[in-house]
Design goal:
Layout lengths: L15 H24 E4 L3 E7 L4 E2 L3 E2 L2 E4 L5 E6 L3 E6 L9 E3 L2 E3 L5 E12 L4 H7 L5 H18 L4 H6 L1 H18 L7 E12 L2 H78 L3 H23 L2 E3 L2 E3 L2 E3 L2 E3 L4
Parallel strand pairs: 7-8
Antiparallel strand pairs: 1-5, 2-3, 2-4, 2-6, 7-10, 9-10, 10-11, 12-15, 13-14
Length: 336
């Protein structure tokens, strides 16, 4: 059996040092990339941050976004927004726990539960954010100060007043809560000069349903009483107006009657004066004595009466002569 010679080429041997150097270079590059990634941070607009170094225990000065910064790879960023933030106290069913909290339920002086809905607008001072972080490393100053202080202040104020006083002076109580809360935060040693309270607005005092129903019934009764009083006043005014009108009409009628009576009296007086003057002229002309004068006066008056009757028309005058003297009776005829 013959053997066929086969030539096998040997692979080129790579030096171990070169392989180790390559591995070290790759690891170093990866470490450098990771370190660079950990060392660069970016901040959007409206955000302020500080760099906390756990090795040295230091906190950097605030950096206000938008910005790009560098830090040690082991350091970390603590940030917060310096835009206007809102804390809302609303009824339980709408409270989410993040910027929206359940409204405090407090007792009035006479033991009625009142729910106070309120809105607080505030803003941190970005140039002093490092001081805020030193006092609140988890940036939870809202949960530790802003919210509890609002609840305590509302409880203190509402517990000193009765329900009736609260209802009648709700605007005054709301202003009192707003001003005292603002003052309390500005004077708080943990937040003084670090947080600005921009606005505090008490939205509503929510009463129990049975109290609300009772108030509505009371308001409805008051409105009915006001309407009844208005209607009574309207009727009284109408009655006074009718009375005044009747009095005026009666006075006018009385004045008219008086004027007519005066005119009639004046006319009668004039007629009487004229008759007297005529009789006196006849007596003087006739030179009659007392008895004759009386007879002439009677005759004149009688003839004047006949003249008036004759002017009326539709009459007959009957003259009768007898032994006892002359008589002239007048007989008016009734119109048919």
């Amino acid at each position: 059996m013959e053997h066929i010679p086969v030539r096998v080429r040997r692979r080129a041997m790579v030096p171990r040092r070169a392989v180790a150097a390559l591995v070290v270079a790759i690891i170093a590059a990866l470490a450098a990339a990771v370190a660079l990634e950990l060392s660069i941070y970016t901040l959007p607009a409206g955000v302020v941050a500080v760099v906390a170094d756990p090795v040295s225990g230091s906190i950097s000065k605030p950096v206000v976004g938008p910005a790009v910064g560098f830090k040690a790879p082991w350091a970390y960023i603590i940030e917060d927004t310096y835009a206007i933030e809102v804390i809302e106290f609303v009824q339980k069913e709408r409270a989410t726990g993040k910027w929206t909290y359940s409204a405090p339920e407090v007792l009035t002086k006479d033991g009625v539960i009142v729910t106070v809905e309120m809105v607080v607008r505030y803003r941190i001072r970005p140039e002093r954010f490092d001081e805020l972080v030193r006092k609140f490393p988890e940036v939870d100053y809202d949960n530790k100060v802003l919210v509890p202080k609002a609840r305590q202040l509302i409880r203190d104020i509402i517990s000193k007043v009765s329900l009736d006083y609260l209802i009648e002076n709700r605007d005054i109580i709301a202003k009192q809560i707003e001003q005292q809360y603002r003052d309390a935060i500005e004077q708080d040693p943990a937040l003084r000069g670090l947080v600005d309270i921009l606005d505090v607005n008490v939205l509503n005092f929510v009463l129990p349903q049975q109290i609300t129903d009772a108030i509505n019934r009371k308001v409805a009764a008051q409105q009915d009483a006001i309407r009844a009083q208005f209607e009574r006043q309207r009727i009284e005014e109408l009655a006074r107006a009718n009375y005044t009108r009747a009095v005026l009409v009666a006075m006018a009628e009385a004045n008219s009657t008086i004027l007519r009576a005066r005119a009639s009296a004046a006319q009668i007086m004039m007629l009487a004066n004229a008759t007297r003057a005529a009789i006196e002229m006849i007596i003087r002309a006739a030179g009659a004595n007392g008895t004759e004068a009386a007879r002439l006066a009677e005759l004149y008056i009688y003839l004047s009466g006949l003249r008036e009757i004759a002017h009326a028309g539709n009459v007959h005058v009957v003259s009768i002569a007898g032994a006892g003297g002359q008589a002239i009776p007048v007989i008016p005829l009734t119109l048919r």
